[in-house]
Structure formats: structure tokens, C-alpha cells
Amino acid sequence: MSYMTDRKRAEGLGSAKSGTEHYWGMIQSSVGLLILVPLFVFTFGPILGSSYEEVIAYYSRPFPAIVAALTIVVSWLHFKNGAQTAIEDYSRGTTRKLLIIAVNCIAYAAAAAGLFALVALAF
User: Fold this and answer.
1) Which pLDDT score, from 0 to 100, does residue 20 have?
2) Model confidence over 83-92: pLDDT tens digits?
3) pLDDT reported for residue 68
4) CA distance 8 to 10
5) What is the distance, to the nearest Å, from the Cα of residue 23 to the centroid of all Cα atoms in its chain?
6) 75 assigned to some structural domain
7) Considering its fold, how many domains does the chain have in total?
8) Cα(13)–Cα(15) distance, rounded to whole angstroms?
């Protein structure tokens, strides 16, 4: 039998004061992806299967390059925030911290690699 009060049991488990901000960030990135993914598909589709020179010429134009860059950045940030939420919900302790660090590193590295590849095509 525990003689702890309800307040003592709940201490340290309360609001981190960032849930609403995180939620709205996920909503904004979702809406951004609702716009960006179809744009990306319609800009990437016509060049699919073309020669390397045609792809370079196509992504040297600003609109397809900007759409691809925005899609890469927004999608990886959305992934990072969603994975971090799942990790925070289902893991504890040191494992939680290590997983969050790993997901952040993977997301930023993948976004940087995608942007590097796009810049290499565009220039």
C-alpha cells in the first residue's frame, strides 16, 4: 500500500509546456506536405526515365529545384517530429534519449544528403 498523495505521484509527469507547439508544428508540416507532395510528383513525373543530361537541365530550372528542396526538408522534419513523439510515448530512460539523438541525426543527415544531391544536379 502506498501512502503517497495524488500530487506526489503526478510530480514530474506533468506538462512539459511544449505539447501544443509540437502539435501545431506537425499540423503545419502536414498541410505543407499535402501541397508539396503532389507538386513534387507532377514536377518529377515528366523527367522520370530521361537521360542524365535532361535531368540536369530540368533541375537547373528554379521551380522544380525549389519544389524538390522544400519537399525534402519538410518531409524529413515531419518524420523527425513524428518519430520523436513515438519515442517519447513508448520508451523511457537512457534508451529514450539515445533514440531521440539517433533519429535527429538520421533526419538531419538524410535532409542534408538530399539537398546536397539536388544542389549537385542544379549546379
Assistant:
1) 82
2) 999 998 899 8
3) 96
4) 5
5) 14
6) yes
7) 1
8) 7
Q: Where are the beta strands (DSSP E) in 25-75?
A: none
pTM: 0.83
Could you tell me the residue range of the domain that residue 30 belongs to? 22-122
- CATH number of the domain that 74 lies in? 1.20.1300
- Most distant pair of Cα atoms in the chain: their distance: 74
Residue 21 has pLDDT above 90, yes or no: no
Q: Would residue 1 count as lying in a domain?
A: no
- Using left for φ > 0, alpha for ψ between -120 and 50, and beta otherwise, residue 91 falls in beta
Task: Please tell me the total number of residues recorded for the chain in this structure.
Answer: 123
Beta carbons of 76 and 113 less than 8 angstroms apart: no
Is residue 57 one of the residues assigned to a domain? Answer: yes
- Kindly tell me the sign of the dihedral angle through the C-alpha atoms of 48, 53, 59, 61: negative
